[in-house]
Fold:
Amino acid sequence: MSQAPSNPQLGLGVKLSYGVGSIAYGVAGQALSTSIITIYLNQVVGMPAGLVGAAIMLSVIIDAVIDPLIGRWSDNTRSRWGRRHPFMYASAIPVGLAFFMLWHPPAGLSNQTLFAFSLAVMVVVRLFLTAYEIPSAALTPELAPDYHARTTLLSFRQFFGIMGAAVMYVLLYLVFLRKDAAHPLGILNRAGYETWGAIAAVVMVVSILVSSLATHHLIPRLMKARDQRVGVAQAFREIASTVTNPSLMVMMLAGLASGVAGGIAATVSNYFNFYFWGLTPQTLAGLLVFLLPAGIIATLVTPAISRRLGKKRTMLLVLVTQLVSGLTPISLRLMGLMPANGTLALLVILVLDLTVWAFLSVAALVIIATMIADIVEDSAVKTGVRSEGLLFAANGLLPKITGGLGGFIGALLLEAAKFPVHAQPGTVDPVILQHLALLYLPAMGVLNAASIAVLSFYQIDEAGHTRNLALLRETGVIAETALEAAAPEMSLIDEVKV
Structure:
């Protein structure tokens, strides 16, 4: 069993600083899993869409294989900086350098060499990003053992991840890819991507270091790895017991379907933005500004909704609403029921749609993360071992693989629709755009509906979590903490008032 010192009660400053670290993951995740990198390598650099999709897919698959190894390594690391912080500190500089290189490929490379270069750099970015993200996320169950307290803590974390990525996204299109006389195509401005990539790399390094330093003083009061060495056979038995937890299996299977859908959506989203809806980079940046208030509202109210409805019911409600809202605008356009491109009415509808999407996305990420955190104690009851790192890595395993697969499928959809390379917005044949939409809609509907159906089998509720904590106290795997003994958890609104 792991040594179990008492956990501290967290102040608002620590919660904010801890959340800041997710900016790095949000920025890199947004760039690597969306059409930002696809458009850059395909439309700007000139790599065929199929090769771009293959590079994204392979980098994600390699990363997914490495994730559980890092999670397990982190769970069993003994150092004067504890189990998690050595990985967090070591990741900062390498991930920044690799992200910078991704946007500065050498000139004159053949498609095959460019593919190899891009794949290698993506793998390095994902590797060191994982070396930070999994140990950092694994701190959550220790920092907030209470069923509702961890929802509040993770609200900060997911808020900064999404909002940090959104701010960098806005800057990319509003400043660096601005459409003007010098750059009439805007989104094809290679120098803009290069400058943005350099700035984003610095932001990622700073966010990781800030978050790591903010939680450094808590190291003596966090869980420590076991003193005894574990044999290979026992290690595999523990891993098998952990990853076959019923609720974890539900989350992984639900993530399998949603991961493919997310990868498809991320790959083609900007093709819809710039070509289907006819937005300019400046207009898109203006729309993205509305992500901030939506994210703030979701961060404030999600813990309260979860407390009232329960985590599973809240998650199902969020996913069903997200599915309907996500498919509605494109479906209405195909039926001829949307305003014309360039009109104020269209922009209003897209703003409303984006605001709803942002709110639901933040809420979904918060609830998913806290549901995984609850599995930590459920698994520890069955195995006698706390494996936070392995659990968070295992949950991300299938979504990462399938997200890469979704990115590859999204690229294939572009090729199936015969989407041209170096295409200027406003010049693409409407038949091609309609074909892409007709391929996209059924794929997204079926995959997301499957994810919702599987998630309905998740088993852990508040009563079950309370029982697990009591059993773990009895067996000595955890001790009663200052946080649990404190007054009931305040809402984020109350904390901000304080």
Observations:
- Confidence is low (pLDDT under 50) at residues 1-7, 479-498.
- The radius of gyration is 22 Å.
- DSSP finds 20 helices and no strands in the chain.
